[in-house]
């Protein structure tokens, strides 16, 4: 794992490579994904079943749909401890997202004009839940609950089914959330199906959820025909720490992201050289004991970094440039950092707030911007599942009051009918 000193002459060029870590090469997969999308648009379910056979090892069967009976059976097979955990997560995530709800509002001006904003839930939301060999019920909870809270009328879930099997834990989570439409379809084909519709899968208005490079590329290509949440890349964590932090705890936190993916990024920034060097030793002490050793090792060594700064202010400035998905501040005065953090998907404050608690049931959403996109993207939330309409109503007095300025602007832009539409109402 590389160690960088901010005072070194070559630091800036090495640090810029970390800042620009999101340079995932979509160019290589773009032709493949474009072909998949066009095929699904043209041949619908037939194309989907061919892709399912190719990538998931089964023919799609008589129906791509996941039945309520499958969900119920999986729920009944789930042990009580897991049911309690899923329901606790559901309640906490729901309570948090309820606080994000916006209301329709109106304002009344003295001249009689009425202005406002109308909030309307999206009609149909498509949720992509990665799967295959692994089960990600937490991703379903994090994507479905904001849609439910927003009041979305129809939620459509797509998830890959290796050899036709969806993990029971994911099916149980579907049952708990009362998901009514779910399909055994994954990859770029699932994104195309939700974006344009097939005989089996309804066309949706927004698509959310994480996925691999093919899924991310597909979401980018269908954006505009439908809305999307964000283009998500490999997971990442950044930690600002000082001597008050526990070296063992922080080492495990960094490795918790490294074990996700060889391309996951793990960063520590500290102005304590002693802490930094102890941390590196601790990472390599723990690393061989991890089940996903090879993945974590490649991630830590190719995408990870320990950065030693000259002071607290520099640590904050550099972390803002990295704009990480998950940011832990492991200091005794963690809240004093908060006003100065500008770019982060989620901020974890204090020594007893590991990033993992946010992945599952703290309450805030774990679908977060990656690769530095926290500079302009926000976490998934209720806002992704609503639309806003402006409201304008004027009486004659209100229009008269604004007419001269409006006509002058229309005249300046050379739009005669615009000017006349005001003029005929005020003469």
UniProtKB/TrEMBL annotation:
Record carries keyword Lipoprotein: no
Positions the record marks as coiled coil are: 68-99
Which enzyme type, at the first EC level? oxidoreductase
Cofactor entry: Zn(2+)
**One Gene Ontology cellular component annotation held by this UniProt entry:** cytosol
Chain residues that bind substrate: 235, 257, 260, 326, 359, 413, 418
Q: In which pathway does it act?
A: Amino-acid biosynthesis; L-histidine biosynthesis; L-histidine from 5-phospho-alpha-D-ribose 1-diphosphate: step 9/9
Q: Could you tell me the superkingdom of the organism this chain comes from? A: Bacteria
How is the cofactor bound, as the UniProt entry phrases it? Binds 1 zinc ion per subunit.
A GO molecular-function descriptor:
zinc ion binding
The protein's annotated catalytic reaction(s) are: L-histidinol + 2 NAD(+) + H2O = L-histidine + 2 NADH + 3 H(+)
Q: Which residues bind Zn(2+)?
A: 257, 260, 359, 418
Q: Which UniProt keywords apply?
A: Amino-acid biosynthesis, Coiled coil, Histidine biosynthesis, Metal-binding, NAD, Oxidoreductase, Zinc
Matching entries from InterPro entries are given as:
Ald_DH/histidinol_DH (IPR016161), Histidinol_DH_monofunct (IPR022695), Hstdl_DH (IPR012131)
- EC numbers listed for it are 1.1.1.23
- Pfam families the record matches: Histidinol_dh (PF00815)
Q: Which PANTHER family match?
A: HISTIDINE BIOSYNTHESIS TRIFUNCTIONAL PROTEIN, HISTIDINOL DEHYDROGENASE HDH
Q: Which NCBIfam families match?
A: hisD
Spell out the HAMAP family in the cross-references: HisD (MF_01024)
Assigned protein family: Belongs to the histidinol dehydrogenase family.
Q: Summarize the protein's role.
A: Catalyzes the sequential NAD-dependent oxidations of L-histidinol to L-histidinaldehyde and then to L-histidine.
Recorded protein name is Histidinol dehydrogenase
Q: Organism, per UniProt? A: Campylobacter portucalensis
């Amino acid at each position: 794992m590389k160690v960088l000193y901010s005072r070194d002459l070559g630091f800036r060029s090495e640090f810029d490579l970390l800042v620009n870590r999101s340079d995932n090469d979509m160019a290589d997969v773009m032709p493949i994904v474009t072909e998949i999308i066009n095929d699904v648009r043209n041949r619908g379910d037939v194309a989907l079943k061919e892709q399912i056979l190719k990538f998931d090892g089964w023919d799609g069967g008589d129906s791509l749909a996941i039945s309520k009976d499958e969900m119920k059976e999986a729920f009944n097979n789930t042990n009580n401890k897991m049911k309690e955990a899923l329901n606790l997560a559901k309640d906490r995530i729901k309570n948090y997202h309820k606080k994000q709800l916006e209301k329709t509002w109106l304002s009344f001006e003295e001249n009689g004009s009425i202005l406002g904003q109308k909030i309307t839930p999206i009609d149909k939301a498509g949720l992509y839940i990665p799967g295959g060999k692994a089960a990600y019920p937490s991703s379903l909870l994090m994507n479905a609950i904001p849609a439910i809270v927003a009041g979305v009328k129809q939620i459509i879930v797509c998830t890959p089914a290796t050899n036709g099997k969806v993990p029971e834990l994911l099916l149980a989570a579907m049952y708990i959330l009362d998901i009514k439409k779910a399909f055994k379809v994954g990859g770029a084909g699932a994104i195309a199906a939700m974006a344009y519709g097939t005989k089996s899968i309804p066309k949706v208005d927004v698509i959310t959820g994480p996925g691999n490079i093919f899924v991310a590329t597909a979401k980018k290509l269908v954006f505009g025909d439908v809305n999307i949440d964000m283009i998500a890349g490999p997971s990442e964590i950044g930690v600002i720490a000082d001597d008050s932090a526990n070296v063992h705890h922080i080492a495990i936190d960094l490795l918790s992201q490294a074990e996700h993916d060889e391309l996951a990024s793990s960063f520590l920034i500290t102005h304590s050289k002693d802490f930094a060097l102890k941390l590196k030793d601790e990472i390599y002490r723990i690393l061989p004991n991890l089940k996903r050793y090879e993945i974590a090792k490649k991630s830590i060594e190719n995408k990870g970094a320990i950065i030693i700064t000259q002071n607290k202010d520099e640590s904050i400035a550099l972390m803002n440039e990295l704009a990480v998905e998950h940011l832990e501040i492991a200091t005794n005065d963690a809240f004093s950092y908060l006003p100065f953090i500008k770019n982060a998907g989620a901020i974890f404050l204090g020594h007893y707030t590991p990033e993992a608690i946010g992945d599952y049931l703290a309450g805030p959403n774990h679908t977060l911007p990656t690769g530095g996109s926290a500079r302009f993207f926000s976490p998934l939330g209720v806002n992704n599942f609503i639309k806003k309409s402006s409201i304008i109503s004027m009486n004659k007095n209100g229009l008269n009051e604004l007419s001269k300025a409006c006509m002058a602007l229309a005249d300046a832009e050379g739009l005669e009918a615009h000017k006349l539409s005001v003029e005929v109402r005020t003469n």
